[in-house]
Amino acid sequence: MAKAQPARSTIDYYGIKGTNKIIRAGDCVLMRPSESSKPPYVAKVEKIESDSRGHVRVQVRWYYRPEESIGGRRQFHGAKEVFLSDHYDMQSADTIEGKCNVHSFKSYTKLDAVGNEDFFYRFEYNSSTGAFNPDRVAVYCKCEMPYNPDDLMVQCEGCSDWFHTHCINMTPEEAEKLEHFFCQSCSPEDQKKLNSSHNASRHIEMKVDTKRRRR
Ligand SMILES: [Zn+2]
Ligand SMILES: [Zn+2]
Questions:
Q1: What is the pLDDT of residues 55-93, one digit of tens each?
Q2: Is 65 contained in some domain?
Q3: How far apart (Å, rounded) are the C-alpha atoms in residues 103 and 115?
Q4: How much distance in Å is there from the Cα of 47 to the middle of ligand 1?
Q5: Ligand 1: distance of its center to the CA of 140 in Å?
Q6: How far is the CA of 183 from the centre of ligand 2 (A)?
Q7: Of 65, 74, 171, 186, whose Cβ has the fewest other Cβ atoms within 10 Å?
Q8: Is 139 within the bounds of a domain?
Q9: Domain edge (last residue) among 105, 133, 161
Q10: Average pLDDT for 174-180
Q11: The whole model's pTM is what?
């Protein structure tokens, strides 16, 4: 015999307790973590439902912070970078602390100012295997690292590659004043023909460790 399910119905919006903010499906939210020492969880609200007693639950899709991923945080991960995971949960709406914005990588780099509630994502993340999509990412500079939007870079007018100021022994102040920049391989005193391999697009694989971490 089928058990009676508590009656649940999908609702259009939810008001965050103690605020005048309204959440709808598709919004990104910050949720209270299980340990108070941790930063809030970042999630996308997929669905909002209420039971007959008015208790509201939300179906969320988690964004993982680099620290929460199997491979951990790497040097090129931005401070505000999150990964769109395939991990869904039902959570009580009471754990929602506020709204946030998860931008695409491109629109994040165009923000005039980055607020507390601004994040970005460029990778989807498989929470059981630790794999990323895309699984290859372009690298820049002589250190061959993917772009980290937190690091200031300057572009070479010869080869068009980008360089970290700290990798070319320049201070950010010097870089801001710079009108022209040629990297070591393109510098006028050392006018070599552009090496085609230097210009070729370079990528690294997004490697995955074997250890697993659970939320
Ligand atoms: Zn570098
Ligand atoms: Zn160059």
A1: 999 999 999 999 999 999 999 999 999 999 999 999 999
A2: yes
A3: 12
A4: 42
A5: 7
A6: 4
A7: 171
A8: no
A9: 133
A10: 88
A11: 0.82
